[in-house]
């Protein structure tokens, strides 16, 4: 259990210290995004999706909808903001919605990483690596939050989720459903926001 908490803590620490770290474009940033996107997509297709599929076979095909739910929620939030706010207001509301949706998302990640690491150390590490990349990529285009309390609060989401996981006993069905939501959200982020488009990328 302590191992999972440690991984959740590292995710939160990395989220805090990398915020605004790559605010300017450089060659290393593009290479890192390309590498991280590739690793994350490989993990998603080879491990996460099959894991959710095995759960759906065991407990019912409705569990597969959790992937669609994770993808759909992120897509709907993004689309709603773009369609209902002007450009100037979009920047403000996009930042607000992104911050809170990301907080909830990484709280689920922290929750799951403790459950997975407690079950199997190797599985916990395999889950940790692509999400570590994802946290760094997510912080690349963001401006550093000036209010230090807010910065600590939003960065601590994975650790908070991990601590909650320590005291909450959930069924395997719930854990698989949460894993599906995380997989769907990760798929959206990788395909729509992370993978370099057109002739970009290295």
Structure description:
With 202 residues, this protein is mainly α. Helix content is 81%, strand content 0%. It contains eight helices and no strands. It has helices spanning 2-18, 27-59, 65-84, 87-119, 121-139, 148-155, 157-167, 172-194. 34% of the residues are buried. The mean pLDDT is 83.
Report the β-strand fraction as a percent range.
under 5%
The largest sheet, given as strand count, sense and whether it forms a barrel, is: none
**Series of H and E elements:** HHHHHHHH
Count every helix, treating DSSP H or I runs of 4 or more residues as helices.
8
**Number of extended strands:** 0
* Poorly predicted parts: none
- Described by the principal axes of the CA atoms, the overall outline is globular
Q: Indicate the radius of gyration in whole angstroms.
A: 17 Å
Structural class designation: mainly alpha
Query: What is the typical, i.e. mean, pLDDT?
Result: 83
- The span between the termini is 38 Å
Specify the helix fraction band: over 70%
Short description:
This protein is mainly α and 202 residues long. 81% of the residues lie in helices and 0% in strands. The longest helix has 33 residues, at 27-59.
List keywords for this structure.
202 residues; mainly alpha; 81% helix; globular
Topology:
Elements: H1 2-18, H2 27-59, H3 65-84, H4 87-119, H5 121-139, H6 148-155, H7 157-167, H8 172-194
């Amino acid at each position: 259990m302590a191992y999972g908490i440690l991984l959740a803590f590292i995710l939160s620490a990395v989220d805090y210290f990398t915020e605004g770290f790559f605010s300017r474009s450089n060659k290393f940033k593009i290479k890192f995004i390309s590498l991280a996107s590739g690793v994350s997509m490989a993990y998603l297709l080879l491990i996460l999706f099959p894991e959710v599929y095995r759960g759906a076979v065991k407990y019912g095909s409705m569990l597969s909808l959790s992937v669609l739910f994770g993808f759909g929620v992120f897509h709907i939030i993004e689309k709603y903001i773009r369609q209902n706010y002007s450009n100037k207001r979009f920047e403000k509301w996009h930042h607000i919605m992104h911050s809170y949706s990301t907080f909830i998302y990484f709280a689920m990640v922290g929750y799951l990483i403790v459950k997975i690491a407690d079950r199997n150390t190797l599985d916990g590490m395999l889950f940790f690596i692509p999400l570590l990349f994802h946290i760094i990529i997510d912080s690349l285009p963001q401006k550093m939050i000036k209010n230090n309390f807010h910065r600590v609060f939003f960065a601590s989401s994975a650790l908070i989720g991990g601590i909650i996981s320590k005291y909450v006993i959930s069924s395997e069905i719930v854990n698989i459903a949460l894993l599906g939501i995380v997989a769907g959200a990760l798929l959206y982020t990788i395909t729509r926001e992370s993978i370099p488009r057109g002739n970009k990328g290295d």
